Amino acid sequence: MLTDAHCRAAKPKEQLYRLNDLRGLYLEVKPNGVKAWRYRFKLGGKGSWFALGDYPTVSLAEARDKCEEARKLVKQGINPVQHRQLERLKREQDSANTFETVAKEWLALRDWEDITKKRRLDMLERVVFPSIGKLPVRDITPAHVLDILTKTVKRGAPTVAAEAKRTMSGIFELAVATLRADNDPVWPVRKALPANKTQHKTALTTAQIGKLLNDFDNHRCGYQVNFCIQLMWWTLARPSEAAEAEWAEFDLDAALWTIPARRMKARREHVVPLPTQAIEMLRRLHAISGDRTHIFPGRDDRNRPMSVHSIRQALKVLGWSGTYSPHGTRTTGSTRLNEMGYRPDAIEAQLAHAEPNSVRRTYNHATYLEERRGMMQAWADKLEIWKRESTGEVSRTQ
């Protein structure tokens, strides 16, 4: 049985030799002076050596502990040499399989439209990847997940937190199924946050509409955000439909905007009449971004459209985030147009709400387009009146 003094005193010889400690542990002394710990074991009737590190970097006590761990593996019929190789390979795979890598793989497997995948990736890049994107997916704990969800809720985005929770759980499900994770760390904290309840905001009053639009006119945000908000209000399009609009969709001479089915929630083409205010704005805008695909190019990547998040950020800066959301434009428009006496069917057609009866849907499209032209011009004119009223001007046209 060796002592530390024996190990220190061992001198190199012309030939390699080994000093026996106990239970298969040896100190191997090489001619070049290197002293290395080795464990001698037998498995399947065949003897082998297992390296445990060099002395004195690995002390005698540490070598005995490592030897005992290897001995336990042998008792289970596991070759410690092969076990070490597998563990190293596993660590290398884990470091390559980061959460971001698995997330993008999961996203590619979804049977979704490209625009839906883009929005989900945008959420991951803003909310999840900054915290755990570079971590091996196997190393992520419930504490990591809870931290992401808590921070998202605290900044006033419970809906985003709910989407992040669902998305992360789906990604971990793939990681577990492909043996890259042992469990779903979302599961233990799935009920840590209060259930998200969809909040349907009430329609803005005419005074609020005027103030909101004036606030944007006076806000020093990029032209994309200001013009996008105006286009939403003039057409009652969904935020993503406006923010991701392409020049090829517009016929300014005919005053029509044809949104293709791939960009519509109901996956059906939608024709939108444009009021004169929108035509004027779009002609001015064409001089700025007419050589681009999108009418509102992104700030960082001019070949991609602006993000709807830019609108939400502007609303937060202006103090409107608790009162109004971009989607609330449609709720407000529907309410006020009904008050103005327009037919509900024409309003629903403008909002692209799905008509389940295909014959009636075709009839509505053919019948209501001209009616909607007049309705949306009157709507745009009203928006101008409400803007002037919010600044104290007295309108002579109302």
Describe the structure.
With 398 residues, the chain is an alpha+beta fold. It folds into 3 domains: 4-94, Double Stranded RNA Binding Domain (2-Layer Sandwich); 99-189, Tyrosine recombinase, N-terminal domain (DNA polymerase, domain 1, Orthogonal Bundle), CATH 1.10.150.130; 206-390, Intergrase catalytic core (hpI Integrase, Chain A), CATH 1.10.443.10. Helices cover 53% and strands 10% of the residues. The chain contains 15 helices and 7 strands. The chain has helices at 4-9, 60-75, 80-96, 99-109, 114-132, 142-154, 158-177, 206-218, 223-235, 239-243, 276-289, 308-318, 328-339, 344-350, 358-390; strands spanning 17-20, 25-29, 35-43, 46-55, 250-251, 256-259, 270-273. The chain has a 4-stranded antiparallel sheet with strand order 1-2-3-4, with helices on one face. A 3-stranded antiparallel sheet has the order 5-6-7. Strand 2 (25-29) and strand 3 form a beta hairpin. Helix 5 (114-132) packs across helix 7, helix 8 (206-218) packs across helix 15 and helix 14 (344-350) packs across helix 15. The longest helix has 33 residues, at 358-390. The termini are far apart. The mean pLDDT is 88.
